[in-house]
Amino acid sequence: MTFPFHLLAPPDPAALPLPHPARPAEGVTLLRGAVYALPEGSRPLAADLWLPEDATGPVPVVVFVHGGGWRAGLRDDLGPRFRDWTPGPFARLARAGFAVVCPDYRLSGEAPHPAQQGDLAAVLAWLRARAGDLGLDPARTVLWGESAGGHLAALTALTQPPGTVAGCVTWYAPTDLPGLAEDRPEGTYDAHDPSSYEALLLGGPPADRPGAARDASPVSHAGPDAPPFLLLHGTDDSLVPARQSVRLAEALRAAGHHPDLRLVTGGDHLWVGLSDADVKDCYARVLTFARRCTGA
């Protein structure tokens, strides 16, 4: 008898059972840890889904991409300014009628660019495949990310087929990796440093891998089919200069678009330095933008 080797093949994530639902807040259902991809040689990739209860039809989707310098981070962590919110920021979006999807992606210690971009493309494909099971309208999908997650959200939004993404929000995101050396204060950034976050993402320093650095930069992909963008960046960001968001806005304008660029006075990375009211305003702008892009 010949062994049925086809049984060793990994299962199709689109056919796996969904996680048992939890109810983290009134009006919200949470499916934690749904496997959406099984990259060969890597760990399974999972996502948390925050869903509105009692939806009367397919709901629009917000895909949140976590930050952490492409090196670390938790898929459901919006940052320290939001950890004590009750209900949390994703539950609030679900209450507003959105499905919120928080995916893992391979970190730079696991695989270099473009693996992360491929992972986010995979979660979008998985959402399309499971839309009927989950009550989603994947044609109304907004990507949203903070810091490195904002970079990946923008990169994915600009490299997907037209119509895949209805809008994209970035918070204090790097968008032009070759331009970082110019944008950072003199003496604070070495484009030849093999230990920088960017070098670890690219598999080598940006100065030594200019082609990969350009390919990994959202500004390189700003074309006529780009979706609407909302870009928020603090004027006092000491880790990712606000000029990085300006660069993407300029590239989008050059391609014929009208991105909404908001430079938040006094804001540092992670919204350090802002009042609670200003942080809430940044969040409210995301909700308003997502409603406008999806007709929610």
**Amino- and carboxy-terminal Cα gap:** 57 Å
Q: Which structural class is indicated by helix and strand composition?
A: alpha/beta
Give the overall silhouette: globular
Read across the widest sheet, the strand sequence of neighbours is: 1-2-3-5-4-6-7-8-9
The tally of beta strands, per DSSP, is: 9
Question: In angstroms, what is the radius of gyration?
Answer: 19 Å
Written as H for each helix and E for each strand, in order along the chain, the element string is EEEEHEHHEHEHHHEHEH
Largest sheet: 9 strands, mixed
The mean pLDDT is: 97
Q: Provide the low-confidence segments as ranges.
A: none
Q: What percent of residues are in strands? A: 15-25%
Helical amount: 25-40%
Number of helices: 9
What does this structure look like?
The protein is built from nine helices and nine strands. The chain is an alpha/beta fold and 296 residues long. A nine-stranded mixed beta sheet has the order 1-2-3-5-4-6-7-8-9, with helices on both faces. It is globular and about 65 Å long. The N and C termini lie far apart (57 Å).
Describe this structure in a few short sentences.
This protein is of the alpha/beta class and 296 residues long. The protein is 29% helix and 21% strand.
Reconstruct the topology from this structure.
Elements: E1 22-25, E2 28-37, E3 45-52, E4 59-65, H1 89-95, E5 99-103, H2 115-129, H3 131-134, E6 136-146, H4 148-159, E7 167-171, H5 180-183, H6 197-202, H7 210-215, E8 229-234, H8 243-254, E9 260-264, H9 276-294
Parallel strand pairs: 4-5, 4-6, 6-7, 7-8, 8-9
Antiparallel strand pairs: 1-2, 2-3, 3-5
